[in-house]
Amino acid sequence: MESGEILISGSKILYSYAAKAGIKKNLVLIDINGEGIWNEIRAPDRIVQWNVNVYIPVFPENEGQNSKYHGSIDTASEFYYDFVQAMRLKNVMLMGEGINADVALKCSMNHPEKYSNVIVVDGTGYGGYAEELYRVQK
Questions:
Q1: Are 114 and 84 in contact (CB under 8 A)?
Q2: Which of 15, 35, 64, 71 to pair with 9, CA 20 to 30 A apart?
Q3: Nearest CA to 96 among 67, 128, 118?
Q4: pLDDT per residue over 90-111, tens digit each?
């Protein structure tokens, strides 16, 4: 894993990544609580072997910066959208576990044109997802 930083909404956002030249698929791993679960299971190093670049941005709430993204699944989903835009990533997949899965789903519902796939692991969900996903599919 390597690390980098990018400017988003006036704040430096740290991220780690595993990438190979020439790979066109990109996966953003979501971790709004800063638990580091993806690194614990060495997910990025394993996934990049499948010819998928992996990015894990540090959610600003954990850095004590940029209150724009604080407080809800909606604002957290906008952070990940802004990260993908700032990095100029194409063919982007999202992956989240638990509450992070809800953020991934919300990202895909708000910006369906931006994400090719969403991988949800043990998402908590809420009642409006089924109707909203149906609307987005149309």
A1: yes
A2: 35
A3: 118
A4: 999 999 988 888 899 989 988 9
Site of tokens 């690194």: 39
Number of neighbours of residue 88 by Cβ within 10 angstroms: 6
pLDDT in tens, 106-130: 899 889 899 998 888 877 766 566 5
The alpha-helical segments, DSSP class H, found in 4-128 are 37-40, 43-47, 73-87, 99-110
For residues 46 and 27, is the Cβ–Cβ distance under 8 A? no
- How many beta carbons lie within 10 A of that of residue 101, not counting itself? 21
CA distance 1 to 44: 7
Closest by CA position to 43, among listed 59, 57, 55: 55
Angle (CA) 127-56-45 rounded to 5° is 115
Report the SS3 class of residue 14.
Answer: strand
CB proximity list for 119: less than 8 A, separation 6 or greater: 93, 94, 95, 96, 104
pTM of the model: 0.83
Instruction: List the structure tokens of 110.
Output: 């708000």
Using the Cα atoms of residue 43, residue 100, residue 22 and residue 5 in order, give the sign of their dihedral: negative
